[in-house]
Write a structure and sequence with these properties.
heterodimer; A: Rossmann fold; Rossmann fold; four-stranded parallel sheet; 42% helix; globular; B: alpha/beta; five-stranded parallel sheet; 23 helices
Chain lengths: 461, 526
């Protein structure tokens, strides 16, 4: 049970948060042959694109409506239409996801209405699915933008169903914004191990996993097919990872009568147990596959080995609320103590469940100050945390977005039994790497008299 | 075996300062202290291991092992003896004897060259040359090589004759002590001597334990002149003959050194321990008493009592916050020697229940102390077979096991908290302040929320209550591409028993300590 603290200051130092449109763009990139389109000035897109490219080390298709002063004042509908037309001409995307920005939201445009009008008028746009999410930069962070984009896609693309005809072996998997391609694959494999077929929405595991394709394309190189959103209405169940996906899951239920369950975390023994138990129920499998059982017993062994290092460990975490919860929960269940928790957005119902006293809605400046005051042993946040690590001389484990000074951000796996095991090792190894060799001064003892020290022979040979 | 080594071993086995040894018949004594090793059921280290353990903490010395690779290659850098100065002792030096060296008898020459290379590269105050089984067997004369090398290079080269096959680790400790008496002690003089000069023998400064004690000695004005071999410099060993009192820590491993220091140089010794609060106080008292007898100012005793009173009061205050967190916890101790009882009193004082303590390698006095502290001898046991210990722990006969590294996994696999109290441990638990660290470690171990989660049943241990009848899988397997064939229909799983049904009988009473017989062999190597 944590209290959400709003620091009383005007100045934000070293931002922790990435913007909401960026989160929306990331979600749109989880659709096959897609191009995310920011409705704003071209700088909004450029910064976001550089951020994404530095994290994924991939060419990221991201476009802009390139609003100028005149179009901002007169309204940007023409810009949107022109952007869609040009994108279709250039790259023939099957999906364009539009995210608004602070600029257009401040002016206050009725984009949905204008978009309806454009689509009705332009029959030639019919073979491109267009989705719009309102994601002003001044409201929430990456996690909120991701959620809003997924909601927009569900709203637009999942059909309403009157008579339910479920495919009992198909389940929907709604991924949280923090899930890496490797993590999506991990959960997908677990679902398949129970002879169930997941429909992953959105699915960046195909588009941003870092692969070389045979062709150059101006769109995303994989991800959920548009047809997958239609298929989602026939699924037996929806598994939503992260509280942020609750609304999307509920929308699917409202439209297609698909029941859902939200997994607030899939990191750590108990949270993964809950997922496995659900999969057992869905598949009617009392006896899960050997691989699942083996991975669980290996996680237990990893926990036994790691608890010597996690017990009493003082941890500082800075992340979006759902990632913050997943990691803090896994660590506190291993005897660690979350002394500093900094998050990006207040739009979350998770704060009551955070295993710490308070969560600061703040930046890495707050993170540094609190971690120093509380004497944190280890820092968990994104790459910008390196400044804090440097200032405090504490090790940094890079989690969340962006991770631009290490390779393989897309391969980090901290979910499922296997990912949890890797996470425990990651933490324990970081702790061990900080090994402190004892000295007499640590205990207040006087050093040994100099006379006993060996003086090397000045001249020899 | 060379005659010199044979007579040295016979000499070591005759230990007048050891009560057990004196009470033996002449014939028994010749057999030695260690119990004969049982092929197929032995786990401890060899004599070379013992010699290395006893001497390696001398930090500025180069420890050169004359052996094929296994002796040093598999064993170096594996103990946590801490240094406040040189790091040379951590570096593994070996002659890495090859087949050709052995067949052609090149061992001695190679050793000499190895010594030269160490001197040229590191210029240490001394080189300790350890003999091992193979060079001893083929007759390499390391004494002669050391003598020649010492003359040639001007750096003392000390032969340590304790090849593995001559016996146990304990014997190796003693042989290492003999080598120091023969070649090192008395070869250098300190700049000054004071009435407050102390030798500490048998402590290895594991993870810095010596430094937990040293502030106490600093406050009393007592100087550690000689050390064998905690955080020792070569010169400190060479000057041991000038100390006023020897404290022998932890068991009788180096009792021959303490006794011979007394015989040769008139330095009285006492046996003490810094594990546990009362032990620490008692050791300080004895140390000061002997110092005063040796000519130190009598007011030392008053200062000692004042220090003890102050430290004990402050440590109990520090321990108090842990009481609610550890009280009522059941502890199984599996260590041995004086540790059988030295921490028991403090744990009991904090409300913990010590359900059993191993008295392996403990003396009769140690055993008497256990009875004193615990009321009877029902809580004493010798060795316990791993599978018995697993059963005891699994059935929650204890809340935490305190032992050495080898039973670590017995406890962990039984999902039982474990605290390391032997030599491989990473935290120092000596003196007053060490007790706080120990209790903190126990607290951290037993109160980790992980245990509850780990002991909970797996998701598949409980029957599914809800289930759907699914159609057989269709399409190809996404991984192997094998098409789905006809499969057995998925059935509903049986429902849970009704809520008011009788609960499954709980396993009778949990296993009790007394139910286990002592194991013939010792898998924990103290």
């Amino acid at each position: 049970m944590a209290k959400l603290v709003h620091p009383k200051r005007a100045l934000s130092t070293m931002p922790l948060k990435s913007s909401a449109p960026l989160g929306a763009a990331l979600a749109y990139l989880g659709v096959e042959k897609s191009i995310p389109l920011f409705h704003g000035s071209q700088g909004c897109t450029a910064f976001a694109m550089v951020h994404l490219v530095r994290h994924f080390k991939e060419a990221v298709p991201l476009q802009t409506t390139a609003m100028n002063e005149v179009s901002t004042i007169l309204g940007g509908a023409d810009q949107i239409e022109e952007a869609i037309e040009n994108l279709r001409k250039k790259s023939a995307p099957s999906f364009i996801g539009i995210a608004s920005t602070a600029l257009t939201e401040t002016r206050g445009e009725d984009v949905p209405g204008e978009l309806r009008e454009i689509v009705a008028r332009r029959a030639d746009f019919a073979d491109t699915q267009i989705v719009y999410a309102s994601t002003p930069d001044f409201e929430g962070g990456l996690q909120d933008g991701w959620a809003k984009a997924v909601e927009a896609m569900v709203e637009t693309m999942v059909p309403e169903v009157a008579d339910r005809d479920p495919d009992l072996r198909q389940v929907n998997l709604l991924c949280a914004s923090y899930m890496t391609p490797a993590e999506i694959d991990e959960i997908r494999q677990m679902i398949r191990a129970f002879a169930l077929e997941p429909v992953v929405l959105p699915d960046i595991s195909g588009s941003l996993d870092g692969h070389v394709s045979d062709d150059w394309s101006g769109t995303s190189l994989g991800g959920a097919a548009i047809a997958d959103f239609e298929k989602a209405s026939r699924s037996a169940f929806t598994l939503a990872i992260g509280e942020q996906m609750r609304k999307s899951a509920r929308m699917i239920e409202d439209k297609a009568l698909v029941p859902y369950r939200v997994f607030q975390s899939v990191t750590g023994l108990k949270p993964v147990d809950a997922l496995v138990r659900t999969l057992m129920g869905l598949s009617g499998m009392q006896d899960p596959p050997a691989s699942i059982k083996r991975d669980r017993s290996r996680l237990i062994d990893a926990a036994l080995d790691a608890h010597f290092h996690t017990g009493g460990l003082k941890v500082a975490i800075g992340a979006d609320p759902d990632l913050l919860f997943a990691l803090s929960n896994a660590l506190t269940s291993m005897g660690a103590q979350v002394v500093t928790a900094v998050t990006t957005t207040q739009h979350s119902s998770m704060f009551d469940r955070m295993p710490c006293d308070e969560v600061i809605l703040g930046d890495l400046g707050d993170f540094e100050r609190s971690a120093a005051e509380q004497g944190a042993d280890i820092l968990l946040t994104h790459s910008h945390g390196r400044h804090v690590a440097h200032a405090l001389h504490k090790p940094l484990v890079r989690v969340g977005f962006p991770i631009f000074d290490r390779l393989g951000a897309q391969d980090a796996n901290r979910v499922g039994y296997r990912g949890s095991r890797a996470f425990l090792y990651e933490i324990a190894n970081t702790v061990q790497a900080e090994h402190h060799r004892a000295t007499p001064e640590d205990f207040g003892a006087q050093p040994i008299a100099e006379e006993f020290e060996h003086v090397p022979h000045a001249t020899r040979h | 075996m060379a005659d010199a080594l044979k007579s040295r071993i016979a000499d070591v086995f005759d230990e007048p300062a050891c009560g057990t040894n004196v009470s033996k018949s002449e014939q028994q004594r010749k057999k030695g202290c260690a119990k004969p090793l049982t092929p197929g059921a032995a786990a401890g280290g060899c004599a070379f291991d013992g010699a290395k353990i006893a001497l390696q903490p001398i930090v500025d010395v180069a420890h050169l092992v004359h052996a094929p690779l296994a002796c040093e290659g598999n064993g170096w850098d594996n103990r946590g003896a801490a240094s406040s100065g040189s790091e040379l002792y951590r570096i593994g030096f070996t002659t890495d004897m090859t087949e050709l060296d052995i067949v052609m008898g090149h061992g001695e020459k190679k050793l000499f060259r190895a010594i030269r290379e160490v001197v040229e590269k590191h210029d240490p105050p001394a080189i300790f040359v350890y003999s091992t089984c193979v060079p001893a067997l083929i007759g390499d004369d390391i004494d002669a090589v050391c003598k020649a090398a010492s003359q040639k290079f001007g750096t003392p080269c000390i032969p340590i004759n304790a090849p593995g096959y001559v016996g146990s680790k304990n014997l190796g400790n003693k042989l290492a002590g003999e080598a120091m008496l023969d070649h090192v002690i008395g070869t250098m003089e300190p700049d000054e001597v004071t009435p407050y000069d102390l030798n500490i023998v048998g402590d290895y400064n594991l993870s810095g334990e010596l430094w937990q004690i040293k502030p106490l000695l600093d406050k009393l004005g007592i100087r550690i002149l000689g050390s064998m071999s905690a955080d020792a410099r070569y010169k400190q060993v060479a000057c041991m003959h000038r100390a006023k009192v020897t404290m022998m820590v932890c068991s009788k491993a180096l009792i021959n050194v303490a006794r011979k220091l007394e015989e040769r140089y008139g330095i009285p010794f006492f046996e003490g321990s810094f594990y546990g609060i009362s032990d620490t106080s008692e050791s300080l008292r004895q140390m000061c008493r002997l110092m005063v007898e040796q000519g130190a100012d009598g007011e030392l005793l008053d200062r000692c009592e004042a220090l003890i009173a102050e430290e004990e009061a402050s440590i109990w205050a520090d321990l108090e916050p842990f009481r609610p967190r550890v009280a009522g916890r059941k502890v199984l101790l599996y260590t041995g020697g004086h540790k059988s009882w030295s921490v028991v009193a403090a744990l009991q004082e904090l409300g913990m229940e010590v359900i059993g303590t191993s008295v392996r390698k403990a003396t009769e006095e140690d055993k008497d102390r256990v009875v004193d502290i615990m009321g009877d001898d029902k809580h004493m046991f010798d060795n316990m077979a791993p599978k018995d210990m697993y059963k005891l722990l699994k059935e929650a006969g204890a809340d935490v096991l305190m032992s050495g590294g080898r039973s670590q996994f017995v406890a962990l696999k039984a999902k039982m908290p474990w605290v390391d109290v032997n030599q491989e441990k990473h935290e120092p638990y000596a003196g007053y302040m060490g007790m706080v660290d120990l209790v903190h470690a126990i607290d951290r171990a037993v109160n980790n929320p992980m245990w509850g989660e780990l002991r909970d049943p797996a998701p598949w241990d409980e029957p599914l209550t809800e289930s759907l009848v699914l159609p057989a899988p269709s399409g190809n397997c996404p991984v192997t591409g094998i098409p789905a064939g006809p499969s057995a229909p998925v059935t509903l799983t049986p429902p849970l028993p009704p809520r008011d049904a009788q609960p499954a009988p709980v396993a009778a009473t949990p296993a009790q300590l007394g139910a286990f017989v002592s194991s013939a062999t010792d898998f924990e190597d103290c």
